[in-house]
Hints:
Shape: globular
CATH architecture: Ribbon
Order of helices and strands: HEE
Protein name: SpoVT-AbrB domain-containing protein
Largest sheet: 2 strands, antiparallel
CATH class: Mainly Beta
Strand order of the largest sheet: 1-2
Organism: Candidatus Methanoperedens nitratireducens
Amino acid sequence: MAVKKVLGTTKLSGDNKMTLIEPVAEILKAKRGDLIVFYLVDGKICIEVA
Length: 50
């Protein structure tokens, strides 16, 4: 079974925007302007930098 580790939380704004929290941005090596892709895998949402 996979181990879950909470990296932090974020909230949706009124227009469904969210901030990518720093620990996640660092893991993804995401930078301002990068395209982020959302996938549905076995009922779970996964994200990666395009």
